[in-house]
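Weekly structure sync - notes
Attendees: PM, LS, DV (DV joined late)
Agenda: review two folding runs queued last week.

Item 1: First target. Sequence and structure tokens pasted below for the record.
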Amino acid sequence: MESTLSRFLCGVSFVVLTTSASTFAGVEGTYVLEDSEDSRFRWKQLELTIKADDDGGYSAVLTESSGEVLLDSDEIEVDGQEFKAIFTLSSDLGDLIFTYAGQVENGKLTGSITESMFGTEVELVGKLKSQDDLPPPLQEESNNEFEIESETNDTSVSQSINPDIVGTYILDNESSSRIKPELTLNLDGIGKYSATLIAGKVTKTDDVEGENNKFSATFKVSTNIGDMDITYAGRIESDRLIGTITESLFGAAVKLVGKLKNEEEPEQDNDSE
């Protein structure tokens, strides 16, 4: 009787240990991040690796398919097959916080990515990388829904200049901050556009194109892993701005919405140092 009970208890212990090990390894692995309807990753070939150490602690790494590390983090929580990893990117606009959160089921990763600068959220989709996986082909398609085609001569460019798009636009976002980013479009006396972005700090650019009521302005932001281009592009309709914001590091594109700033509106307390 005692022998039978001992075998039974050993069997239960084995099942518990097996289950625990399975749960522990439930999210571990390298995941190739895929395109989704909200974001574009394939052109950048990003990979997310989640791993555990011998003490049960987790870490996460974002790399390109070449193996180059973009960001790593020890700020990661795992509960069964669910996870949340926080990556901090230092830039001359301040620290940008990217939070990857989701779950893994049968080698499929789903969830969301949120970032702190604009309070935006995009869909996270990926699949467990296998040894037989080939790197996806590079795609040279633009993330800019409102990309402006290059003009063939200076005359057509000058005819497309529209001073009505000039102004300061308060950008809407979903963050909890009371401070809204501001985008200013300028036009000098020879028909050359420029732009200024106030988002915590002030950033200026001459990399601006305008055509009729459409525009595209690209700001270069220095980070601890290299320069990042943030492109604001869209169109002006009356006093409303509609378009997209794209950034070059992760290829994410988010909705851009804003309104023309009323001169009587109080100045926001932005840090312009």
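Item 2: Second target, run right after the first with the same settings.
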Amino acid sequence: MQKPLTFLASVALAASLALPVAAQDEPGLDTVVATVNGTDITLGHMIVARATLPEQYQQLPDEVLFTGILDQLVQQTALADTFEGEAPARVTLSIENETRSLIAGEVIEGVMATPVDEDALQAAYDAQYAEADAGEEYNASHILVETEDEAKALKEELDNGADFAELAREKSTGPSGPGGGSLGWFGAGMMVPTFEAAVVEMEPGAVSDPVQTQFGWHVIKLNETRKTKAPELDEVREELELQIRQTVVQSTIEEITAAAEVDRSAAEGIDPTLLKNIDWLE
């Protein structure tokens, strides 16, 4: 398969030899920057070429990019002029596919740019947030040790009035130990199942019996609980607008396709493995 010309090595040379571009009156897309064998290269061509460069090239100084891109387009134009005969199938088919894709993309961009109706936005918010059940969040601390006997001994000390945070700093083998065992706030699914199950059954201020997980044995203290609140509409406006637009785009694609005169009968009976016949393009 033919490979497209890459961003040519002249960019590296341009870094040290770049020259200022001659001033022009109100330049635009149609502004001609070079002519090769009678074929114009415009500022628009250069803008499109820059936009399609890999990210690392787009970080180069503007002067370097200008010279490098212009050199590339001049070289491509000169090379194209030397081609004789009909363009290979791989070229004409690629151009057709690219044209189809780009124009279809313009239609989708137009749909995405349509303002989102406030009623639709409110309905999406209500469906996703306002009617959802409030969740529960937990603030807990724990002391992690290796054996059940150690955990039982800790529970006994705590029942006799020992300070939980001090014991955690002294005895816990977990990373939260230096912080007094504090785990902060967490919700459903954020802890291993056996740990979460124990916390859910506790009342604020209570200390659990030893709980085993794959990390060892825990003694848990539930500090507080709270109900999770749904975000305000403005906090999730952009997220909801994107969801609505994506839904509208999909509906538009389906409607336009359904309204088109489509005949797929010619595809019936064709062996799908024929798509691998890249040599047909040569």
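Discussion on item 2: Residues 89-112 form the longest helix (24 residues).
Action: LS to circulate a short write-up before next sync.
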